[in-house]
Amino acid sequence: MTKILQPSSLAKVIAGNKKKKLITVMCHGAFDVLHYGHISHFKEAKEYGDILVISVTADKYINKGPNRPFFSEKIRMKTVASLDIVDYVVLSNSDVSISIIKALKPDIYCKGPDYKNHKNDISGNIKKEIEAIKSVGGKISYTEGKTYSSSKLINIFSDHFNEDQKNYVKLIKSKHSNYYINKMIEKISKYNVLCVGETILDEYVFCKAIGKSGKEPVLVLQEMNREKYLGGIGMISNNVAEFVNKSEILSVIGDRDINLKFIKDNLNNKTKFNYINKINSPTITKRRFIDHIDKKKLLGVYDINDENFDRNQEKDFINLFRKLISKFDTLIVVDYGHGIINNTTSKLISNSKIFTAINTQINSFNIGFQKIDKYKKPDLLIINESELRHDLRDNSSNVDYLVSKIQSTINFKKLVITRGSKGCFLYSKKQSKVKKIFCPAFATRIVDKVGSGDAMLSMMSICLSAGLSDELSLFIGSLAAAKSVENIGNSYTLKKVDLLKSINHILK
């Protein structure tokens, strides 16, 4: 008899057992590394009934940091099913157990002793799980045995982190407790953030490569499906909205509002969208053709008008900016170089009195024209190393020398240089002295790099604005970027619970 069943099949088994007066107990978790604590929990749980069902969280819903889960869902289910005490195993395709509880309708839902105090559950899901089990006529029970942590065992004994990553985690643990980090991230929830930049729509066209055309040297693709996401400053705002009190956008869209409903529908419901219609322009759409099997990009086709504002639009932008800025304590500006920010508006931004974070980006449209020195005194400047080298026309000097050159023209307080898989540097300037911190990249399972820089910028900006330390802000920003690259484009928006769970598990 197979122990691993589909939810629909297992629901019938449980319903049949109820008719036989047999009590079904269900436990739920990731069970990434099966240890004595799990086995003890299972044994005690089965004492509450006759049949023991273990619900295992699917890979894509596990938020315990980079490189997790350590074992795939298939291996984790087989490992749990190998225990004699376990009667059935089922995969839970959700980030919480509520749907599987309602589908299976067990008599008892059993949690470990660490869940008795609901304040320890940062996700807040235990209360929802209790409501779910009661809604199907069951009840909650708790085991009493000693708890162990798979995350702690993995952190100590596995090689899922390299030496640089281990050393940085050790640094964070030596300076900050999980309790302190949770409190500091909660502090961010009091902040109000204004996000300025272009609204961009990212469209992914997944294709099957058919081959060369019979008569022309042209690659023929068969479209399989399309996905459309909100990008640009919309994604920045969505990332911060989960963490802050209020997030608003000042942006530009095309003079035809055919995309306005899509934009508003895909913004966080806490976000207000302020915009100007750019004359004779579409809303910027970046369409990428993707191989549907290996997810590699084949071609990019952009619908864009990157000319600067005319005088009237520039005036409208300035007036709207001045009207909005007094309501905020943090300003995030992303300069994609598509016309919304020119020399006049950049001076306006540079003279802002609130914490200001700037990110300038080089792309195929603005290469050779985009300059970062139009911003004179940002609190935080974030730029990719290759883009910095291009701006300074220097492909050989070390990063420290590049920083010495840039600080002579830009009076930054903090400068973050991102370097992809090589991690990032943060240079913090106080008077004439510059302190340098290196943070390794924590991303390994890379699906798409689009959006990773935006994720880091989002978290670095609000963390530093709220007074978190440079080391901790870098750590949180790097984890945000690592989560982003595991997904296609901007399909994933940062979530406070996910980030806190990742941090708490990594620091165990």
Give a short overview.
With 508 residues, the protein is of the alpha/beta class. It has 17 helices and 18 strands.
Question: Explain this structure to me?
Answer:
With 508 residues, the chain is of the alpha/beta class. It has 2 domains: 7-155, 3-Layer(aba) Sandwich (Rossmann fold); 182-197 and 231-279 and 308-506, Ribokinase (UDP-N-acetylmuramoyl-L-alanine:D-glutamate ligase, 3-Layer(aba) Sandwich). Helix content is 35%, strand content 25%. It has 17 helices and 18 strands. It has helices at 7-19, 36-46, 73-81, 98-104, 125-135, 150-157, 163-175, 178-188, 233-241, 260-265, 311-325, 343-350, 385-392, 399-406, 452-465, 470-484, 496-506; strands at residues 24-29, 51-57, 88-92, 108-111, 139-142, 192-196, 199-212, 219-232, 246-254, 271-278, 284-291, 297-303, 330-335, 355-360, 380-384, 414-418, 424-430, 433-439. A 9-stranded mixed sheet has the order 10-9-6-13-14-15-16-17-18, with helices on both faces. Strands 3-2-1-4-5 form a 5-stranded parallel sheet, with helices on both faces. Strands 8-7-11-12 form a 4-stranded mixed sheet. Strand 1 (24-29), helix 2 and strand 2 (51-57) form a beta-alpha-beta unit. Helix 4 (98-104) packs parallel to helix 5, helix 9 packs across helix 15 and helix 15 (452-465) packs antiparallel against helix 16 (470-484). The protein is globular and about 80 Å long. The protein starts with 6 loop residues before the first helix and ends with a helix. The relative contact order is 0.11.
Could you name the CATH homologous superfamily of the largest domain? Ribokinase
In terms of structural class, how would the helical and strand content be classed? alpha/beta
The level 1 CATH classification of the largest domain is Alpha Beta
Amount of beta strand: 25-35%
CATH architecture field of the largest domain: 3-Layer(aba) Sandwich
Poorly predicted sequence stretches spanning 5 or more consecutive residues: none
The 3D shape can be described as globular
Largest sheet data: 9 strands, mixed
Number of helices: 17
Distance between the termini: 38 Å
- Overall mean pLDDT score? 88
Helix content range: 25-40%
Largest sheet strand order = 10-9-6-13-14-15-16-17-18
Number of domains: 2
